[in-house]
Amino acid sequence: MTSTSSTTSSSRTGKGKRTHRSAAQREAADAVRAAKITALHEQIGEQVEALTADPQWRAMLEAAAKFHTYSLGNQLLIELQAARLGISPTRVAGFGTWKALGRSVVKGSTGLAVLAPCTHTPKETQADTGTGQDTRRAAPAATTAAGTAGEPAGGDADQSTRRRVLRGFRLAHVFDISQTQGDPLPDITPELLTGDAPAALWDALAAQVAFHGYTLTREDCGQANGLTDPAARTVRVRPDIADAQAVKTLAHELAHIECGHTAEGYDYRGCRGQAEAEAESVAYIVTAWAGLDAGAYTVPYVAAWSAGDTDVVRAAAAMVTAAARRILDHLDGPQSTENAPGDGDAAPPAGPVAQPGGVRVLATA
User: Fold this and answer.
1) pLDDT for 54-70, tens place per residue?
2) Which secondary structure element, helix H or strand E, spans residue 321, and what is its range?
3) Residue range 105-142, pLDDT digits in tens
4) Which stretches of the chain are assigned E, i.e. beta strand?
5) pTM of this prediction?
6) What are phi and psi of 117, to 5 degrees?
7) Which of 159-163, 219-223, 330-334 bottoms out in mean pLDDT, i.e. has the lowest?
8) What is the pLDDT of residue 162?
9) I need a labelling partner for 342 at 20 to 30 A (CA). Which of 120, 250, 308, 330 fits?
10) pLDDT in the model for residue 333
11) Pairing of the two strands 234-237 and 215-218
12) Does residue 288 or residue 335 have the better pLDDT?
């Protein structure tokens, strides 16, 4: 990492001369730090709220809603076929969906085969009452923890509904956006940070990653900027990004560990949106503390993973501020805290993860 004199002082990277402070001085400094951390987190919520009020953001969400979420099996099929065609798939959809989005498939493009479910609605059968009248009620809609699923579009929960039944699969073809042409899709993407970052900040964050038992490397991360693999106990940051972005990404990966997203039993897949919003919020606070403005990256990133719901951002305040405080405590030096990294009550202990359904890797886009 390249060092700059304008971004941070040595005391904020865990380096330099230590000065002895009294208990009262430590308490006062701790109160100031806590207030600043809270203010920084509130900034994220305010900026996310401003962004999601933008018509372009709403247009992006409407476009994103048209894209189908493919099963793991279909995702593997897409990846394998795309690799043979020399394509790195990003946004994949059927011919009709692309047409609805104002784009057309380039003539001669090879479609990517997927398995599409075939369903049908069973015919109503009359109950044998001797009157010839149908007294059978529709089977109740499936219920979930969030409420009743499959209610009629009009919202009338008393209206009879019939569930569609899977009867098999058929072969369908989809196309990546690189195989289409036409109107650009509305998009608001995080802007990669540019420029330098203090080498001492990278070193201090790397030391905390190592403390948790993770090996840090600069390696290719596919389409992500960083990856945390709890099973292999590794953290990777891609090598071809600017120092400022690399240090922010490292703070994000450390935040995953500090927030307990790598802890045994944590359902990262089920809570991915929340986990990513929390980790990026922590990274924003840590880098802002060191004088790096990551807002152009953080705000769209958090807005996307929280689906623009500022309540999700604000609900994470306790987790985010506690994790950021622990990281900053150790950037400021051992005299600022009595706790080792990760010892706060707000986060579960970091550790190897039992991965139901396969290996999980936490990826930072």
Assistant:
1) 666 566 656 665 666 67
2) helix 317-332
3) 999 999 999 888 887 777 765 444 444 444 333 333 33
4) 92-93, 103-105, 112-120, 143-144, 147-148, 165-176, 180-182, 215-218, 226-229, 234-237, 362-364
5) 0.58
6) -70, 140
7) 159-163
8) 55
9) 308
10) 54
11) parallel
12) 288
Nearest to residue 187, comparing CAs of 46, 68, 304, 43?
A: 304
Rounded Cα distance, 131 and 114, in Å = 48
Q: In the beta sheet, which residues pair with residue 42?
A: none
Distance separating alpha carbons of residues 196 and 241, to the nearest angstrom: 11
d(CA 195, CA 103): 36
Q: Alpha-carbon distance 16 to 109, whole Å?
A: 59
Give Cα 140 to chain centroid, integer Å: 34
> Can you spell out the DSSP letters for 14-26?
T-S------HHHH
CB 208 within 8 A of CB 216: no
Q: Among positive and negative, which fits the CA dihedral 183, 187, 191, 192?
A: negative
DSSP 8-state symbol, 365: -
* Mean pLDDT value of segment 202-229: 93
DSSP states of 86-115 as a string?
A: T---SSEE-HHHHHHTTEEEPTTPPPEEEE
Top-confidence range, 32-41, 119-128, 218-227, 333-342: 218-227
Q: Which helix (H) or strand (E) holds 49?
A: helix 23-52
Q: How many CB atoms lie within 10 A of CB 22?
A: 8
Say if residues 343 and 309 touch (Cβ distance below 8 Å): no
